[in-house]
Amino acid sequence: MRWLLIYFVVLLMASMADAARENEESVPEGCKVCRIDLDDFSGCWNNSLTHFTKNVEADLNQLVSSFIHFSRWKKVHDTEEDFKDAILEQTLTEYEALSEEDRGPLSAADFRLIFDVIFNRTRAIEPRFEDEIYLPTLVCPTPCGYADRMYVALFFVLVIAFFLAVIVFLVYLFLIHRKTDREGQFRTMRDNRCADLCAGF
User: Fold this and answer.
1) Is the four-CA dihedral 193, 195, 196, 201 of positive or negative sign?
2) Fewer CB within 10 Å: C terminus or N terminus of the chain?
3) How far from chain centre, in Å, is Cα 54?
4) Mind telling me which residue stretches traverse the membrane in this protein (predicted)?
């Protein structure tokens, strides 16, 4: 019983450590919040600007790669379905619904201009990959649904572990009770035999 509990505690700690490690690895180095009034050295700003520039570069490439993969899917399934514009409209609608405090310095109109450029360039690039065997690499980030799935799975593991521990504990109590009953019966038989022997004398 004790070893079973220790095992599940170790399993829980290992799962939490793995989740923390995955989340840490998903955040590139250099992301810092610089203080205007305290940071005299420009290195902090250089690190942050480099970090966000690389993020934008990587995310734009992944976005365009997603559209290229989707274009191949349309060709394989012989369909003209396209949801670039629908995604843009939904994203801008959600952005406009945010409060002014939650919005950034860019307006929805600014984002529309930026995405129009991206989508136009994507449409110009897509024909280049129509006959290519290998498409651009498309990688989903590690935390993409990872944490939620991990905690849901961990919850079910803990529930199952709890019921297993209860079953093991009940079996343990049953065996102890049975052993006690046997010892009581043996002690009673021994006392009765001793009484019979003593009565014969």
Assistant:
1) positive
2) C
3) 23
4) 150-175
CA 47 to chain centroid, in Å, comes to 27
Residues in the chain: 201
Q: Which domain holds residue 157?
A: 1-25+145-201
What is the pLDDT confidence band of residue 97, given thresholds at 50, 70 and 90? Answer: confident
Q: Tell me the torsion sign for CA atoms 36, 39, 40, 41.
A: negative
pTM beyond 0.70: no
Instruction: Quote the tokens at residue 44.
Output: 């902090």
Top-confidence range, 44-48, 101-105, 180-184, 192-196: 101-105
65 neighbors 138 (Cβ within 8 angstroms): yes
For position 25, what pLDDT does the model report? 46
Interior CA angle at 162 toward 156 and 166, to 5°?
Answer: 150
Whether 44 is in a domain gets the answer no
Counting the structural domains of the chain, the total is: 2
Query: How many degrees, rounded to 5, is the angle at CA 121 between CA 127 and CA 109?
Result: 145
DSSP-assigned letter for residue 136: P
Q: Are 44 and 34 in contact (CB under 8 A)?
A: yes
CA–centroid distance for 46 within its chain: 31
Type of residue numbered 38: L
Q: How far apart are CA 53 and CA 48, in angstroms?
A: 8
Are residue 135 and residue 192 in the same domain, yes or no? no
* Encoded amino acid at 52, one letter: F
Asked whether residue 129 is assigned to any structural domain, the reply reads: yes
